[in-house]
Specification:
three-stranded mixed beta sheet; 3 strands; globular
């Protein structure tokens, strides 16, 4: 029997849709008979009916997401009206960026399990489109990780709950519970704290079920290990120091959290284009699989935290070298710093990497040295390491802003961001034997500058932006 909260009327239809059809032969989009959880009715619904089902089941949570503060990359501007009504328009008759992103992530699960490669990759750019064999690999990961209906429910619920910490009212509501935690926790920690103290109805309603335990394990894991930050070299090795203890006996929770992350990334462009999992292109998929393997290697003691982290950087280097860019080594501090920059910049081609290289080289020696120092602090026995939270999103926005500009304009804009990042690092550098500490610094406050119409023509305006004290050191992540 499917283990879901009793008497919870709003989950009734979803509960029924997750029951397995053991009587009929069901054929997926790949022409093969569906097995396991693929036999649930949910995965045979059309997209419109699935959106309505998600909207009915998770109505309170999706309503809260209407208030969620948009991320740096969730501009409300859609690329074209021809894309049809967006999920939030169907559910609320208005556009809400975070609602659209969440629902598209949930649709991505449906496309994956159903083996619908065309729906999943439909509007992806051909040059970087997710390969069929990679889609099959990703699908196999989900099919093996989702063993029961409870697993599917926990994953869908986690996908909805994931961004509730972005609701500007959430930290205030949870204020009385936050005193025992580091100051100004990020939204992952806020959601975990809120769930732990009974502030999230969806979590409370699953109390006493297998779903509840899986949800809480996933929230705890996500509050302590940010896989997306590792995949983009946004974090530092120090954030991985205790990953073995965190993951001990929690392999299934890790798998569910990784699947949730994949769905989060898959839906990340849902506010622009809700027709497919547009961001989950081949290089992105490979990057996240490398990050997953790096974490597993650290847990199995096949490498150190630094070694696992550097494998993510080396993978980016190999990707760029394959396209003709100069080989870079993690053993050289300057080259390793550049590898971190191109990884945060999500570069996939020699041309893109050359812009970052030229921008880095154009910095005055003093600034380039300070930036290299900041990028090379691990936060493990070498002093204070700073995590520039949302920095990959700022790089992405700058590349979008200057997409039609000349190479010189692109390089100047990237150099401006690098000078800004140098100020964020605030003189930190590796000091062997010093007490290790990792601190998050949100750079989201700079988004209005890099998105402004003036930035392209005057990138030096970012040099004039003061760093708010409240943003400089917002959250202690780990201390030796």
């Amino acid at each position: 029997m499917f283990d879901l909260p009793h008497g919870l009327a709003r989950t009734k239809d979803l509960r029924e849709s997750l029951r397995l059809d053991t009587q009929n032969v069901l054929i997926g989009h790949n022409g093969e008979e569906l097995q396991g959880i693929g036999r649930a009715k949910l995965f045979t619904l059309n997209d419109l009916d699935a959106v309505k089902l998600f909207g009915t089941t998770f109505a309170p949570e999706l309503s809260s997401l209407k208030n969620a503060a948009p991320t740096v990359e969730s501009s409300p501007i859609k690329t074209s009206e021809e894309f049809g009504p967006f999920p939030s328009q169907l559910l609320f008759h208005e556009d809400y960026a975070e609602v659209n992103r969440t629902i598209v992530g949930m649709l991505a699960l449906k496309w994956l399990v159903a083996g619908d490669y065309d729906a999943f990759t439909g509007q992806q750019f051909p040059a970087a489109k997710l390969r069929r064999e990679s889609f099959d690999q990703l699908r196999e990961l989900f099919m093996s990780g989702l063993q029961t209906e409870d697993d599917v429910y926990a994953l869908l619920a986690a996908t909805v709950v994931n961004d509730l910490g972005k609701d500007p009212d959430m930290p205030e509501k949870a204020a009385r519970f936050l005193q025992e935690y580091p100051p100004n926790p990020n939204h992952d920690m806020v959601v975990y704290i809120a769930a732990k103290h009974g502030m999230l109805p969806l979590i409370n309603e699953s109390e006493g079920t297998a779903s509840h335990e899986k949800l809480m394990q996933g929230l705890l894991f996500g509050s302590e290990v940010n896989i997306a930050q590792l995949a983009q070299a946004e974090c530092t090795p120090g954030t991985l120091k205790h990953v073995k203890e965190i993951m001990a006996g929690q392999e299934h929770a890790f798998t569910l959290k990784f699947m949730e992350l994949i769905l989060d990334v898959a839906g990340a462009d849902g506010h622009h284009d809700a027709r497919c999992a547009k961001p989950m292109i081949e290089p992105v998929f490979q990057g996240y699989m490398v990050a997953r393997q790096a974490l597993m290697n650290i847990v199995q003691e096949k490498c150190s935290a630094r070694g696992g982290y550097d494998e993510v950087l080396s993978h980016r280097g190999r990707l760029l070298t394959t396209d003709g860019f100069t080989a870079l080594s993690v053993q050289d501090p300057y080259e390793r710093a550049l590898l971190r920059l191109v990884t945060m910049g999500r570069t996939t081609t020699k041309e893109q990497a050359s812009w970052f290289d030229q921008a880095f080289r154009s910095l005055p020696y003093r600034i380039r040295r300070a930036l290299s120092d900041g990028l090379n602090v691990d936060g493990i026995d070498d002093g204070v390491a700073i995590v520039p939270y949302y920095m990959p999103a700022l790089f992405s926005e700058v590349l979008k802003t200057t997409s039609k500009s000349s190479k010189d304009v692109k390089v100047a804009a990237l150099a401006s961001l690098m000078r800004f990042l140098t100020r964020i690092y605030a003189g930190t550098k590796p000091v062997l034997g010093a007490k290790g500490e990792v601190i998050e610094c949100s750079v989201a406050f700079a988004q209005n500058v890099v998105k402004s119409q003036d930035f392209e023509n005057k990138p030096t305006m970012l040099d004039e932006l003061a760093i708010p004290e409240a943003s400089r050191y917002v959250s202690v992540v780990k201390v030796d």
